[in-house]
């Protein structure tokens, strides 16, 4: 059994690598910095776990093509990403930064990394996945009223849409593969500067890893789902368009578009 985790040299990614390694998986530890990645590999190996470094730089789309050389991947965890430019006069990590203060460059950089980079990882690995492989995207809610780091949230919204689209295509292809997103809640990482235990809500990366990996092994098919840490499932962003309304749009929308009756 083989698992590739991106952004796994530290934080949540490293904790997930430890968790899966203890379950018997051969770990492919993805990181953009080889020195730090090899240090993390050495830590896993010191604990008796099977681990190998794989260079995964989400900003190097051409370099990600080399992932197609891998084979027999049973689990892919897309954890790597950046918070975007959240610096303000309050400090370098201000998650309450006004959405009006983000520049086009801020948005572009974060989308390129978190969305396009993750897209490239998945598409380059499609032929390398086992027949019943699981792709897990570590993600977040994207419509919180009091928490809106715009660049990060926008990139994750795009990633979530991709999760739905790829999942629906797996269904159309009658594939046994699954792709889904997990929202682990408030976690202390170097992306946000939060402290574990803060407000009684912020958890450690190891607690997050236990929660995240639990959905890989709960025996359920989570394809095309976004799952909150408490198990709440989101399977679409537009519930009002489902059922009769969706069928009406599909049937009558095209007639109206082309002037047919």
Automatic annotation (TrEMBL):
Q: Which GO terms describe its molecular function?
A: oxidoreductase activity
InterPro entries referenced in this protein's UniProt entry, alphabetically = NAD(P)-bd_dom_sf, SDR_fam
Task: Specify the signal sequence span.
Answer: none
This protein's record includes keyword Zinc-finger: no
Q: Alphabetically list the UniProt keywords.
A: NADP, Oxidoreductase
Name the domain of life this protein comes from: Bacteria
Name the protein family. Belongs to the short-chain dehydrogenases/reductases (SDR) family.
Family annotation (PANTHER family)? CARBONYL REDUCTASE 1-RELATED, CHAIN DEHYDROGENASE FAMILY PROTEIN, PUTATIVE (AFU_ORTHOLOGUE AFUA_3G15350)-RELATED
This protein is called SDR family NAD(P)-dependent oxidoreductase
Species, as recorded:
Lactococcus allomyrinae
């Amino acid at each position: 059994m083989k698992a590739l985790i991106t952004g796994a040299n530290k934080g949540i990614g490293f904790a997930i690598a430890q968790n899966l390694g203890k379950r018997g998986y051969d770990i492919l530890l993805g990181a953009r910095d080889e020195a730090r990645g090899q240090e993390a590999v050495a830590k896993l190996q010191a604990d008796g776990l099977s681990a190998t470094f794989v260079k995964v730089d989400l900003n190097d789309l051409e370099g990600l093509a080399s992932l197609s050389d891998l084979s027999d991947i049973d689990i892919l965890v897309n954890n790597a990403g950046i918070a975007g430019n959240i610096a303000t006069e309050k400090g370098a990590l201000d998650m309450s930064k006004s959405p009006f203060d983000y520049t086009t460059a801020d948005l572009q950089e974060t989308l390129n990394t978190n969305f396009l980079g993750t897209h490239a990882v998945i598409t380059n690995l499609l032929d390398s996945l086992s027949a019943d492989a699981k792709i897990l995207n570590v993600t977040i809610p994207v419509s919180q009223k009091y928490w809106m780091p715009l660049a990060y949230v926008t990139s994750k919204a795009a990633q979530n849409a991709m999760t739905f689209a790829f999942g629906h295509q797996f269904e159309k292809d009658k594939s046994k593969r699954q792709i889904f997103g997990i929202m682990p809640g408030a976690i202390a990482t170097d992306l946000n500067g939060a402290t574990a235990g803060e407000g009684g809500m912020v958890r450690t990366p190891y607690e997050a890893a236990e929660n995240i990996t639990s959905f890989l092994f709960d025996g359920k098919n989570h394809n095309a789902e976004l799952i909150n840490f408490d198990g709440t499932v989101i399977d679409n962003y537009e519930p009002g368009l489902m059922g009769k309304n969706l069928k009406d749009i599909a049937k009558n929308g095209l007639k109206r578009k082309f002037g047919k009756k």
